[in-house]
Design brief:
Elements (H helix, E strand, L loop, with lengths): L10 H26 L4 H30 L3 H19 L8 H29 L2 H8 L2
Helix pairs in contact: 1-2, 1-4, 2-3, 3-4
């Protein structure tokens, strides 16, 4: 996760970054269970989804709304939302009786890249692009 630009000093970015860390850790546990043939993979998938769904909702209904309104990062936000849909679609639609683990592993790879793009691209850019009133709106001040 990014620690060099100071964007985590913004409370929402700090929260989303901490959630990214928890999501990445949960994804790592799931990957390990899948690759080692662990019997707890489905439960670990549920754990990951329980972290991922509310996180995505905060991004899409808060930060991303403000970034779209500002306008300069709309293309990046649209791409990230498409990635949310893709990753959630794969993970949420898994047939639990006959799981397609290679597809899940590929989605976990995309999730890792997605988090990296937000941490090192979107979040620092958002700090620069959004005025303080926008941050006040997304944090409820």
């Amino acid at each position: 996760m990014c620690n060099y630009c100071g964007c985590r000093e913004f409370p929402l970015i700090g929260q989303l970054s901490a959630e990214h860390e928890a999501i990445a850790n949960a994804a790592g546990r799931l990957r390990t269970a899948i690759t080692s043939g662990g019997t707890d993979a489905v439960a670990l998938l549920d754990e990951l989804l329980a972290l991922l769904m509310p996180h995505t909702d905060i991004e899409e209904r808060g930060l991303f709304v403000e970034l779209r309104a500002e306008g300069s990062l709309t293309e990046a936000v649209d791409r990230l939302c498409d990635e949310h849909d893709d990753i959630h679609g794969v993970l949420g639609a898994l047939d639990r009786k006959a799981p397609d683990w290679p597809t899940v592993l590929a989605a976990l790879d995309r999730l890792r890249r997605h988090i990296d793009n937000e941490e090192h691209g979107l979040f620092p850019a958002a700090v620069i692009a959004l005025p303080i009133p926008a941050w006040d709106r997304v944090t409820g001040r």
